[in-house]
Write a structure and sequence with these properties.
It is built from seven helices and 14 strands. It is α+β, with helices and mostly antiparallel strands and 301 residues long. The protein has three domains: 129 residues, no CATH class; 33 residues; 133 residues, Nucleoside Triphosphate Pyrophosphohydrolase, CATH 3.90.79. Strand 12 and strand 13 form a beta hairpin.
Length: 301
């Protein structure tokens, strides 16, 4: 299971539009609140995410800039509260936490589904902070439907705003013919001998496959033919969706753009296995690029 996927919550879309039901859940002693501070998770002394029950969290809820409903966990309501308007120390005190850390720092100690819930909370609260005002008329917006919609309060406007995701493609590019190789790149700012798959955001008016071909061509100067879907991953930094592909190059000629990518080269499976044996990781522990590289290596034992 890829990180940030497989979340167990029932998002209860049919219920979250009922203000009375939500109000009852907020005072229900079995409900829980996940507190966050400026996109960071508030954790206890053993770096476990803090989950105070609502009945013991009156101060936390009163001090939150925004409280959103995430869903139901076996009938128990789960909320997220944003304490970003306060200092880190005050936010930790309200939540009974000791520090605020990025969810990526916790992934190694969390199951994929648990990381998915934290990522969901982070992304939704981040969206609220950036949608306080209407982009059409400038009037203030008001949250509704448990935090899954914002409505413009401007006279004659009433525009509805919904959370948006930012789709991106990430691809493992194979060389045509023999020997079997894959293309990896070193991006600007990356350490020497640090290689990863190519990736980029999908632009308006193009398909996912179009985006794969464009990004590989722009960044590495490699023309791509066949493109095959491999899987997708929520990527909450802040609200991305990574869509993974395996692509086949038309030729092995490489010409990097020198801006985002400063170097690119073809690797054989033997070379990648040697890097693994030497302690060089293949991609981030929480990223789909590790899955793409691992599955390519596993295709030939």
């Amino acid at each position: 299971m890829l990180a940030y996927g497989g979340g167990w919550l029932d998002r209860a879309a049919a219920l979250r539009g009922d203000p009375g039901w939500l109000a009852e859940r907020l005072t229900d002693p079995v409900s829980v609140v996940l507190p966050l501070w400026r996109d960071r998770c508030l954790v206890d002394a053993v770096r476990a995410p803090v989950r105070p029950v609502v009945v013991d969290a009156a101060g936390l809820l009163a001090g939150a800039d925004e409280t959103v409903f995430l869903g139901l966990d076996e009938g128990r309501a789960v909320f997220a509260a944003d304490l970003s308007g306060r200092g880190e120390g005050e936010a930790c005190e309200l939540a009974g936490a000791v520090e605020a850390v990025d969810v990526r720092a916790l992934v190694g100690d969390l199951g994929a589904a648990e990381a998915a819930v934290l990522a969901y909370a982070k992304g939704l609260l981040h969206w609220h902070r950036g949608q306080r005002f209407c982009g059409a008329c400038g009037a203030a917006t008001v949250a509704g439907s448990g935090g899954h919609i914002r409505s413009c309060g401007g006279a004659g406007c009433g525009r509805l705003l919904f959370p948006r995701i930012e789709p991106a493609v990430i691809m493992l590019v194979e060389a045509p013919g023999e020997p079997e190789r894959c293309l990896l790149a070193r991006h600007r700012g990356a350490a020497e001998d640090s290689w990863s798959t190519l990736a980029g955001f999908v632009e308006i008016g193009e398909s996912l496959e179009d985006a794969v071909r464009r990004e590989v061509g722009e960044e590495a100067g490699v023309a791509v033919g066949e493109v095959a879907y491999q899987g997708s991953q929520a990527w909450p930094f802040p609200a991305g969706l990574m869509v993974g592909f395996r692509a086949t190059a038309v030729s092995t000629r490489v010409r990097v753009d020198g801006e985002e990518v400063v170097e690119a080269r073809w690797f054989t499976r033997a070379e990648l296995r040697a890097r693994v044996a030497a302690g060089r990781p293949l991609g981030r522990i929480d990223s789909i690029d590790r899955h793409l590289l691992g599955s390519w290596l596993d295709a030939r034992a």
